[in-house]
UniProtKB/TrEMBL annotation:
<keyword id="KW-0408">Iron</keyword>
<dbReference type="InterPro" id="IPR023635">
    <property type="entry name" value="Peptide_deformylase"/>
</dbReference>
<feature type="binding site">
    <location>
        <position position="98"/>
    </location>
    <ligand>
        <name>Fe cation</name>
    </ligand>
</feature>
<keyword id="KW-0479">Metal-binding</keyword>
<feature type="binding site">
    <location>
        <position position="140"/>
    </location>
    <ligand>
        <name>Fe cation</name>
    </ligand>
</feature>
<feature type="active site">
    <location>
        <position position="141"/>
    </location>
</feature>
<dbReference type="InterPro" id="IPR036821">
    <property type="entry name" value="Peptide_deformylase_sf"/>
</dbReference>
<feature type="binding site">
    <location>
        <position position="144"/>
    </location>
    <ligand>
        <name>Fe cation</name>
    </ligand>
</feature>
<protein>
    <recommendedName>
        <fullName>Peptide deformylase</fullName>
        <ecNumber>3.5.1.88</ecNumber>
    </recommendedName>
</protein>
<dbReference type="Pfam" id="PF01327">
    <property type="entry name" value="Pep_deformylase"/>
</dbReference>
<comment type="function">
    <text>Removes the formyl group from the N-terminal Met of newly synthesized proteins. Requires at least a dipeptide for an efficient rate of reaction. N-terminal L-methionine is a prerequisite for activity but the enzyme has broad specificity at other positions.</text>
</comment>
<comment type="similarity">
    <text>Belongs to the polypeptide deformylase family.</text>
</comment>
<keyword id="KW-0378">Hydrolase</keyword>
<keyword id="KW-0648">Protein biosynthesis</keyword>
Length: 175
């Protein structure tokens, strides 16, 4: 589906480059349009009960843009030049998956809420607080923009497990 795969695309391990907004708003819109189209295709083929996200490096673009599709009917959340500016002291550990290595899942510790600063198309700074599963999705996509994969954050004692094994666990319904 045109999504970069782990161990095949070195762009996934590199920090992405910020857009200069509003000067590069057109380029940012083009990247976001590609993200939306790719996400729509993925969602046409697979269902994601807990939502899903996609970052520009996953479609071969080393720029700092991502989208997060929520489980409700709202359109995707667009993140331009996002960075985490605050996070909860409390965290939890849950299984995550990734479109860049779709056939496995792994347990990752994430904050239960985080505050993200990003930019609107015109360059205006925005600050948004994300909670629960949405915070996890947003953190995962920002990690992609920083060149970090979720398996890099797993505890040394944890291992990636095949999706079939994950689906058989009680945790599969909790994401």
């Amino acid at each position: 589906m045109g999504i970069a795969q782990r161990d095949e695309d070195p762009l996934l391990g590199k920090p992405s480059v910020e857009f200069t907004l509003p000067t590069e708003a057109r380029a940012a819109r083009q990247v976001v349009a590609r993200l939306r189209a790719t996400a729509a295709e993925v969602r046409r083929i697979h269902s994601f009960r807990g939502g899903m996200g996609l970052a520009a490096p996953q479609i071969g673009v080393g720029r700092r843009a991502a989208i997060v599709c929520t489980p409700d009917a709202r359109g995707p959340i667009v993140l331009l030049n996002p960075r985490v500016v605050d996070r909860s002291a409390a965290d939890d550990v849950r299984f995550e998956g990734c479109l860049s290595f779709f056939d496995v899942r792994g347990r990752v510790r994430r904050p239960v809420h985080l505050v993200v600063e990003d930019q609107a198309w015109d360059g205006t700074p925005r600050t948004t607080r994300f909670n629960g599963s949405l915070a996890r999705l947003v953190a995962h996509e920002i990690d992609h923009l920083d060149g970090v994969l979720y398996c890099d954050l797993m505890a040394a004692t944890d291992r990636l497990i095949p999706v079939e094994d994950y689906r058989a666990t009680e945790a599969a319904g909790n994401y």
